[in-house]
User: What shape does this take?
Amino acid sequence: MSNALPLKIELKPSCILLILLSFLHFGAVISLWVSAIPLWLKLILLFLCAISLYYFLGRHVFYYFDRSIYKLAKQADGCWLLHQRHGNCVKAQLLSNSLISPALCIVNFKTLDHARSFSVLMFADSFKKGSLRQLLVLLRFPG
Assistant: This one.
């Protein structure tokens, strides 16, 4: 597979990430509830846990925030187009500090003008059939 070939990846909601985030936040809520801190502080921290769960589910699982990246497209010139939920399309460059494995991919991008960086968190079940393998080959064996 040549690095010059375009690649389009449309992400779908990840059940693995949904379960993981729910489990971690539920554990935090239980830990807060049984801890020996004042009730008013427990309520504030529980509220912050709820906001955190809402944010991470919206950003990385269900992609319902406007700036959530739900589609990636590699162009022939080596640049990537990051499609956001509100319709904006950002042209970016892949950074070398991305984590690539068959179970989890954390892909980091920086816009061409270096004004902003993006991270896309993808579990194996976020991909349509065949897309994960294409991405792994493309990122592990550039050129």
